[in-house]
Every structure is written in structure tokens, then in C-alpha cells.
From TrEMBL:
<keyword id="KW-1278">Translocase</keyword>
<keyword id="KW-1003">Cell membrane</keyword>
<comment type="similarity">
    <text>Belongs to the PNT beta subunit family.</text>
</comment>
<dbReference type="GO" id="GO:0050661">
    <property type="term" value="F:NADP binding"/>
</dbReference>
<dbReference type="Pfam" id="PF02233">
    <property type="entry name" value="PNTB"/>
</dbReference>
<feature type="transmembrane region" description="Helical">
    <location>
        <begin position="33"/>
        <end position="51"/>
    </location>
</feature>
<keyword id="KW-0997">Cell inner membrane</keyword>
<feature type="domain" description="NADP transhydrogenase beta-like">
    <location>
        <begin position="8"/>
        <end position="463"/>
    </location>
</feature>
<comment type="function">
    <text>The transhydrogenation between NADH and NADP is coupled to respiration and ATP hydrolysis and functions as a proton pump across the membrane.</text>
</comment>
<feature type="transmembrane region" description="Helical">
    <location>
        <begin position="191"/>
        <end position="211"/>
    </location>
</feature>
<keyword id="KW-0521">NADP</keyword>
<dbReference type="InterPro" id="IPR012136">
    <property type="entry name" value="NADH_DH_b"/>
</dbReference>
<keyword id="KW-1133">Transmembrane helix</keyword>
<keyword id="KW-0812">Transmembrane</keyword>
<protein>
    <recommendedName>
        <fullName>NAD(P) transhydrogenase subunit beta</fullName>
        <ecNumber>7.1.1.1</ecNumber>
    </recommendedName>
</protein>
<feature type="transmembrane region" description="Helical">
    <location>
        <begin position="57"/>
        <end position="77"/>
    </location>
</feature>
<dbReference type="GO" id="GO:0008750">
    <property type="term" value="F:proton-translocating NAD(P)+ transhydrogenase activity"/>
</dbReference>
Length: 465
């Protein structure tokens, strides 16, 4: 296959990746988006294999083994993973992207002829720069992602671990890395290449360890962005257009996603990177227990109130995902609609543990898209609603975000559930949300707490109907 044809096919796969990202931006088109992504990736792999075939039978076997083992493991893991474990899965996969960048750069360094990056016994300076930078970003992404995975998966405390003098140590390490990179480009020393890797591995760990569990999804998205830039850097070394396009798409979309998350949580990106928010309760689960009295109701009470309502707004949160209550919830909404009740769903941009978490679960339960509304589109409707049905959500409804300047969620936009005539709150106990702050709405006169697992409570309400 000529270089022109393979370049053209790489561009086609790049266009398919862009169409995939576009498709993934809405639940109605997300399956199609996934399909575009798969076709694009398939095309890129075939183009690479045909355009630059592996040298010999042994190399073919290695490539096919890699495809089979990697693809097979990916398919099995993706099938088995639960929706709530998705953030840590993404973190684990990013660590592999980082590691791949390190291996590819090492491969290029040790077999420069194969990549055409050496002339008269000297590497191209530009290639040395790309390899050094790519390997540094790749190694930082690797250890950073492994620690993010461990924190999100509960294998390591989600609590921010404040190492003494960490900013100074990180700054010194970063400065040392720049120096090593400059020396590597100047001397072409393989030992310096490995030193860059070691320093970057340490730096990746040190950057992520102090960051609390609550900020981890932002960090995962940021690492996603890093891994993209690492891949793009290596793409230049290999002269592989597909890698440059894909890496840049991943790099920029990860950066945009980090920005959107920070914006939705009213957190500055810098303060996330400097660490120290939430986390503790994330690891501790239900959080602290409140002793003030609350009004408690039963499934029968909830069924009665909702049957007699005209408008019900459902506010799902992380607890709905944990309980997998979305199917029962849709059944409940269907029953209410049969009774002539107007039912809508209000989605907060950071409800759950990743952007779009609630949309995906509601789509899985076949909730009609036209009943699902974003925060800005529905917030004004709470005063006209008879019932705000809050199911496993907490922080995203907490008015402290508007009133308490000292609160870690101050400034985050929230769903104004307390403005509905009645607020029904389903949760297991009086535990706080992910940010670890108390929610005054529990104690309001118009609030009724329905204690229990979200799915069980909704099933009881269904029976009571
Ligand atoms: P939340 O504030 O974490 O609250 C979830 C509530 O669900 C908890 O208070 C818990 O109370 C309850 N719960 C847990 N398991 C349950 C079960 N099986 N049945 C019933 N209730 C259950 O959740 P949220 O309101 O969705 O807010 C999301 C939080 O995550 C925000 O602080 C946001 O900033 C953060 N975050 C989100 C993203 C994102 O992209 N979505 C990214 C980073 C951070 P009990 O323990 O009393 O049951």
C-alpha cells in the first residue's frame, strides 16, 4: 500500500473518530458513535498492518497474539464491569496507554532504523525530543492512573495524603525532568532515557497521591488527556498519522472534559491538582451520622403523595446507580404517568461519579429522552412541582452550595429540590454525600425521608400503588 493511500485511510479513520465523539455526546446517538469508533479503529489497525506489515512470521504471531489477548481481555472486562466501577476501569485502561507510550518510545530508541529516526549514527534531534517527552508523559500517566485506580477501587484510602514539602519536591522533580530531557537530547544517552522514565514514574505517583477521592474523576479525565498527548508525541516519532490524530483527539477531549467537570463543581483545575477536597467520606461510605430529628415516611406514604400529585420531578444520584434502581424507577414513573401525573427527570451535570452517569443509566432503563432535563432547563420548574423525588442524590441538591461560603461545594450549581411542595428523599441513612457535607434539606418541614436501599424502596412504592 502506498504512503498516500495509507495517509488517506488514516484520515478516514480520524474522521470516523470525530464522528464517534459527536455520536457519544447524546444517548440517542451513542451506540452509533461507538460503532463509528470501532470501524475507525479497525480501519487504522488494518491500514497499519497492510501499510507496514510485521517483518516475518514471528512478528505476525506477536501482533496477532497482542490483538487477541488485548482485545479478548478488553471485551471480557467491559462485559463484566458494573456501571459504578466504570471510573476505575477507565483509570486502569489509561495506565496501559501510558505504559504503551513508554514501550513504543523504548522500541524506537533501541531499533531506530526501523523507524527511520537515525542518520550517520545519530538520532534526529526532533525524534529524541518526541521520545523523551512522550516517555515522560506516558510514565507519569502510568503511575498516576494506577494510583487513581487504587483510590477509586477502594484499594487505597480516598483520603488526600498530604506529603510534607510535596509542592517543593514535585517542582524539583519537574525541573530535574526538564534537565534530564535536555541532556538526553544532547547526549543521546540510553541511561538518561531510563532515568527520565524513573523520575516520571515517581512524579506521577507524587502528583496523584495527595488528591482526594472526590476529585478523582477529574484526575482520571486529566490523565486521559495526558495519555492522548503522549500517544500523539509518539505518533510523530513513528510518523503515524492515525496515532497523531487519535492522540490529539483524546488529549483535547480529555482536557475539555476536565474543564467541564471542574466548571460543574465550581472547582478550579489548579485546586484539584493541588488536592485536598472530599475524599475522606468517599472512602468511608455513608459518612457522619446526624442526630437532629427528621420526618420519616413509608413507601405507602410516598405512593399516596405521588398518586395525588400533578407534577413529579425525579432527581437521581449516585445511590440510584449503586442500588441499580433505574428499572424499578422507570416502572414507577410509568405507573404515575398512567395516573395522569406529569413526570420529569432532572439531571445534575456531576450527579453520580462521572459525567453522563445518570443519562446512561436512565437510557439503559428505556426512560424516554424527552422526559430527561438538564439542570438549567428544569431548575425553574421545582416551585411548580408537587413532589421532588430524590433517589440516592445528595450533594447535587445541597443548598449549602449557595449559602455556606465555607462549604467545599460552595458555588456549585444545585438542583433546587427544596422549592417543590414536598421533597421525598430516598437514602439508606443520614450519611453525607461525596463531598462529606451535611444537607439541610433533610430537616426541612416539607421533606420526608424514605430510608432504605433505593431499589428496595422503589419496589415497595410500586407494591403500594
Ligand atoms: P452523593 O452526594 O455522593 O450522594 C449519594 C447518596 O446516595 C449518599 O448520600 C448515600 O446516602 C446515598 N446512597 C448510597 N448508596 C445508596 C443505596 N444503595 N440506596 C439509596 N441511597 C444510597 O451523590 P450525588 O448527589 O449524585 O453527587 C455526586 C457527587 O460526586 C458530587 O459531590 C460531585 O461533585 C461528585 N463528583 C461527581 C463527578 C461526576 O462526573 N459525576 C465527578 C467528580 C465528583 P446513604 O449513605 O445515607 O445511603
Amino acid at each position: 500500500m502506498s504512503e498516500n493511500v495509507s495517509s488517506l485511510l488514516y484520515i478516514v479513520s480520524g474522521v470516523l473518530f470525530i464522528m464517534a465523539l459527536r455520536g457519544l455526546s447524546h444517548p440517542t446517538t451513542s451506540r452509533q458513535g461507538n460503532l463509528y469508533g470501532m470501524v475507525g479503529m479497525g480501519l487504522a489497525i488494518v491500514t497499519t498492518l497492510v501499510g507496514h506489515p510485521p517483518a516475518g512470521f514471528g512478528a505476525w504471531i506477536l501482533v496477532l497474539l497482542g490483538l487477541g489477548i488485548g482485545g479478548g481481555a478488553g471485551a471480557v472486562i467491559a462485559k463484566r464491569v458494573s456501571m459504578t466501577a466504570m471510573p476505575q476501569l477507565v483509570a486502569a485502561f489509561h495506565s496501559l496507554v501510558g505504559l504503551a507510550a513508554v514501550f513504543v518510545a523504548a522500541g524506537a530508541l533501541y531499533a531506530p532504523q526501523a523507524f527511520g529516526i537515525i542518520e550517520n549514527g545519530h538520532y534526529h534531534k526532533q525524534s529524541l525530543f518526541e521520545m523523551g517527552l512522550g516517555v515522560a508523559i506516558g510514565a507519569i500517566t502510568f503511575t498516576g492512573s494506577v494510583i487513581a485506580f487504587a483510590k477509586l477501587d477502594g484499594r487505597m484510602s480516598g483520603k488526600p495524603i498530604m506529603l510534607p514539602q510535596r509542592h517543593l519536591i514535585n517542582a524539583l522533580l519537574a525541573a530535574g525532568l526538564v534537565l534530564l530531557l535536555a541532556l538526553f537530547i544532547g547526549t543521546e544517552s540510553k541511561a538518561l532515557f531510563w532515568l527520565i522514565i524513573i523520575a516520571s514514574l515517581v512524579l506521577g505517583g507524587l502528583i496523584i497521591i495527595p488528591i482526594g477521592g472526590a476529585d478523582m474523576p477529574v484526575v482520571v479525565s486529566m490523565l486521559n488527556s495526558y495519555s492522548g498527548w503522549a500517544a500523539a508525541g509518539i505518533g510523530f516519532t513513528l510518523g503515524n498519522l492515525a496515532l497523531i490524530i487519535t492522540g490529539s483527539l483524546v488529549g483535547s477531549s480529555g482536557a475539555i472534559l476536565s474543564y467541564i467537570m471542574c466548571h460543574a463543581m465550581n472547582r478550579s483545575f489548579i485546586s484539584v491538582i493541588l488536592g485536598g477536597f472530599g475524599g475522606d467520606t468517599a472512602a468511608a461510605g455513608p459518612g457522619q451520622v446526624e442526630t437532629r430529628p427528621v420526618k420519616q415516611g413509608s413507601a405507602d406514604d410516598a405512593a399516596y403523595i405521588m398518586k395525588n400529585a400533578e407534577r413529579v420531578i425525579i432527581v437521581p444520584g449516585y445511590g440510584m446507580a449503586v442500588a441499580q434502581a433505574q428499572h424499578s424507577l422507570r416502572e414507577m414513573a410509568d405507573m404515575l404517568k398512567k395516573e395522569g401525573v406529569d413526570v420529569k427527570y432532572a439531571i445534575h451535570p456531576v450527579a453520580g461519579r462521572m459525567p453522563g452517569h445518570m443519562n446512561v443509566l436512565l437510557a439503559e432503563a428505556n426512560v424516554p429522552y424527552d422526559e430527561v432535563f438538564e439542570l438549567e432547563d428544569i431548575n425553574g420548574e421545582f416551585p411548580q412541582a408537587d413532589v421532588a423525588f430524590v433517589i440516592g442524590a445528595n450533594d447535587v441538591t445541597n443548598p449549602a452550595a449557595k449559602t455556606d461560603k465555607a462549604s467545599p461545594i460552595y458555588g456549585m450549581p444545585i438542583l433546587d429540590v427544596e422549592r417543590a411542595k414536598t421533597v421525598l428523599f430516598i437514602k439508606r441513612g443520614m450519611g453525607s454525600g461525596y463531598a462529606g457535607v451535611e444537607n439541610e434539606v433533610f430537616f426541612r418541614d416539607n421533606t420526608m425521608m424514605l430510608f432504605g436501599d433505593a431499589k428496595k424502596v422503589v419496589d415497595q412504592i410500586l407494591k403500594a400503588f
